[in-house]
Amino acid sequence: MKLSFRLISAVPLLFMLLVATGMGPVTAKARMCETSSQLFNGPCLSTTNCANICQNEGFPDGDCQGFRLRCICNRPC
């Protein structure tokens, strides 16, 4: 009887331990402001090229978005 009581009480403890390890501190992501590139011409086919153009415009990043394949520059708000 003692062994089964120990086993029954150990199972919820192990479950709580497994659940607690998956929970860490929650960090808030900064909102990203997006604006259309002023210097990029034509359809945006290369995200790397778009990011380079956006960096020349003073933005940290850029990527191709939308149906019209436009270069969109991103920065934290």
Cα Rg? 25 Å
CATH fold type of the domain at 40-76: Defensin A-like
| Biggest sheet character | 3 strands, antiparallel
Topology pattern, helix = H, strand = E: HEHEE
Mean pLDDT: 82
State the end-to-end distance: 62 Å
Number of strands: 3
Number of helices, where a helix is a run of at least 4 consecutive DSSP H or I residues: 2
Q: Could you name the ranges where pLDDT drops below 50 across 5 or more consecutive residues?
A: none
CATH architecture of the domain at 40-76: 2-Layer Sandwich
CATH class value of the domain at 40-76:
Alpha Beta
Q: What structural category arises from helix and sheet content?
A: alpha+beta
- Name the beta content range: 15-25%
Task: Write a structural description.
The structure is a single chain. The chain has helices at residues 2-22, 47-56, and strands spanning 32-36, 61-65, 70-76. The chain has 77 residues and is an alpha+beta fold. The chain has a domain at 40-76: Defensin A-like, CATH 3.30.30.10. The chain has a three-stranded antiparallel beta sheet. The model has no long low-confidence stretch (mean pLDDT 82).
